[in-house]
Amino acid sequence: MATDTARAFWILEPGTGAIRTETLSPPEPGEVVVETMYSGISRGTETLVFAGRVPPSQYQAMRAPFQSGEFPGPVKYGYISVGRIVEGPASRIGERVFCLYPHQDRYRLPEAAAIPLPSGLPAERAILAANMETAVNALWDARPLAGDRIAVIGGGVLGMLTAWLCRQVPGTEVTLVDINAAKGTVAAALGLGFQADAGGLEGCDLVIHASGQPAGLVDALRVAGREGTILELSWYGDRAVPLPLGEDFHARRLVLRSTQVGQIPAHRQPRWDYRRRMDLALRLLCDGVLDILVTGESRFEELPEALAALAHAPGAALCHRIRYP
After folding, report:
1. What is the pTM assigned to this prediction?
2. What CA–CA distance (Å, rounded) separates 250 from 79?
3. Backbone conformation region of residue 319, classed left if phi is above 0, alpha if psi is from -120 to 50, else beta
4. Within 13 Å of residue 53, how many CA atoms lie on the same side as its CB?
5. If exposure means fewest CB atoms within 10 Å of the residue's CB, which of 57, 174, 206, 212 is most exposed?
6. Per-range mean pLDDT, top range of 154-168, 227-241, 308-322
């Protein structure tokens, strides 16, 4: 059987990436070949991987589904890819799919891992799927209730999506907090309240922290109401995070809870699996208002420079899309 070639992005060592050519073997029975249309940069996890900030204790836990190589490098890492099936069962040729695959222009994978896009979801917006899946899982862990006063600290893509989901619970008041005042325009488009700092917020029923900065988590502890829950969405890699767990932390009986997309919450596991969760995430992305979360685009050939720039000076960027020919 003939072989083909593909181009893939590799992190060669912390802070340095390049596009390499590799052999693409023909698909085996039960596999498909996908030709990539778009991929997305995961601004939180992927920039930490690029910077070599994954602690050795988390090497196995942080593996992406179709990762090649090992941390800190060389490693082919990523999990946001949208493309079109070009080889496989005749019934699926031409189908638009989302795959948890690294940045690569053509690839083969099990047919079940190529998840069809709903008819109402443009491929350009489907790169938000991994973030939406994480936001859904966070909502399941947070369990917002009707009428809750909710603060979301950190206005990246994940914070925005989680706040947007919380807002759809009847009667909730959702305020997004981010030090970049430019995020206020995005928050308003999503129907969210906005503040550039956490001043004046207090007594919140639920606080979701997604800023990636220890100072943001300190603010989250401060604005939570008595017996309130603080849900920690940020991942800090190898960085230590000091917290003020003295003072009135215990007297207010606060709950500090982690959430991580790698595991479905226990109370959902009897009825939900990963495929059902991803199908939900893709359906939720059919709302066109979410296009505002895609704030930049580069060609695949520009990916090494684009990721380096985002890792060192993210600015006001949200989701950065990579376009393939």
Report:
1. 0.94
2. 39
3. beta
4. 15
5. 57
6. 154-168
